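thread: overnight batch results

M.L. [08:02]
morning all. the overnight job finished for the chain we discussed friday. pasting input first so we're all looking at the same thing
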Amino acid sequence: MQPTILQLVGLILLFAGLAAIIWVILAALHRKKYARAGFALAALAGLLLMALLALHSLGDGDLWAQLLSFISHNYKRYEVMIPMRDGVKLHAVILKPVDIASPLPFLILRTPYGADGTSRLSFCSQSPEIARAGYIYVAEDIRGRFKSEGDFVMMRPLADHHDPNAIDESTDAYDTVAWLLKNVSGNSGRAGFVGSSYPGFLAVMAGIDPHPAVKAIVPKAPMIDVWMGDDFFHNGAFRQSYGYDYVFAMESKTAKVDYGKDKAGKLRDGFDYFLERGSFAEAVRGSGSAVLPTWKLFLDHPAYDDTWSSRGVEHALKAVAVPTLTVGGYYDQEDLYGPQIEYSTLEPHDRNNLNFLVLGPWSHGSWAQSASRLGNLEFGGHTGKEYRAQIEAKFFARYLKDEPGFDLDNVASFQTGSDTWKYYSQFPPPESRPTLLHLQGGGTLSWSESGVQAKTIYVSDPANPVPYRHRPIQPTYGKGSQWSSWLAEDQRFVANRKDVAVWMLPALKKDLVVTGEVFADIYASTTGTDGDIVVKLIDKYPDDDPDRKMRGFQLMINEEIFRGRYLESFSKPTPLHPNSIYEYRFSLHDVDHVFKASHTVLVEIQSTWFPLYDRNPQTFVPNIMTARPEDFHPATITIHSGPEHDSALQIPLMNSGR
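M.L. [08:03]
and the structure it wrote out:
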């Protein structure tokens, strides 16, 4: 692709102007050395930037996209309204390269977050590898959002596709492709879908009973089941602060979450905000908003009834209908569950090796960034860029353009600890061996079973819950929020609490490699009639670690919660019998990590994780969402160990490491 004279001149002026500005800054810092040149270059910088603005007036109004097209393509933007089978029209923005004569495939993003801001600049900056490759890019508002007609339904349930008049996100994707093929010239007859989080769910839906032209989908952190383990609930425990904040931003007219100010006039800590309100129903009542549609779903349907199971996409994943590259992050604070359950559900149906998985060291969405670090963690490379250039771009090129280069066998996983990409023929790999790590008396962990029965006891008080991250806790997407990196926070801030039980191995003498799914199998009793169990697997760094900021650091590797009332059934909660011993067996999800020699393996158990998860009253009530202040009581929790009740973690070991 040859740059135009306008683009070349613009680039020269841009870089010259920036260089002049830098020189002016140096002149201000070092007056004697740069003074004369600085004053002259200040004037030069102004002239150059004025010339650049003059070029802007000569172009099509998108100056930065003009400059970006020097390294990408010249995309023309236009808007359309696409009719669905029921007559509802959806708004879409189309970016079409005008400097490519050959037919091109569509790459489609369906979104609830607004397509109107889609431009050459946004496409080239957010997806540079894809933009350089050349696609007809389509961003579409889903029903009821922004400029699209119809009604918005949070994670709209899958319809009966035997009914030609039924509509859902799958049928809307189908109708969108059909219209584009017929009405957009210069297309190759192929389409792919891409999206992260909610748009990731929409990409998955495009692969269910897909249009024949759909040849590839890349769902990143897709919402697959928001009750079982994605955004809104985990194993029945309601994600209160996130459910409140996300729905308020999506469905209210103000779209800004504000916890207000405390008595001192400072921004209120979210911990205090939700604790003062008591229950989710009271938080909604005090929000200043009407009861929003999805808030009402939470309030009226706390258990896994048809409202939530009908939204569980995993129930419809019965075939790999199109090549699927699923992407997830080991530190994804929103949808860690979705990509893992999507891949594992599809894998038994994958007879043609079309189901692929990428797991990186990412928080939610950070695969779109450089992703060389997260909090205190440094990964030794630009993992997001590596994924996009070496895997995603080549995947679309292979299945939408028949180009060579995509050679992923099945799974690419960034192994934390060793900070290297690993490639597997399946996940977990065949070499992974599930091995029990036993919780014993005295706070010790052991690879061997104990012949001695033991108890570890703590008191859980809903009035003093364990915070899920360092305080103060800002609104999820508010200014200064630490939401994106909380899974990588140092856990020492809660390690000394009396309501957090801790077990540990001796310091490792050699590396311990863990790859696969971790399970908790905990035997616990409570003096209450309901209760939660939170389990964390932690890598404790040595106090003399070469990296000063990591000395003594306690890094969560796996973590999850389970609500006791759902031990017998997710759809029909039942009370616990006080002082009876129950088995809590649940997944802590996938991991690919090296506990390095001299590090220590820790396991922590607690019963509150606030305010991300609402407080369990620890007294059984029909609906925790509407629990009254008098329903909340302290409870004594006992973790049982030994031959009769062998509390343990099932660890997928790749080596003995001991």
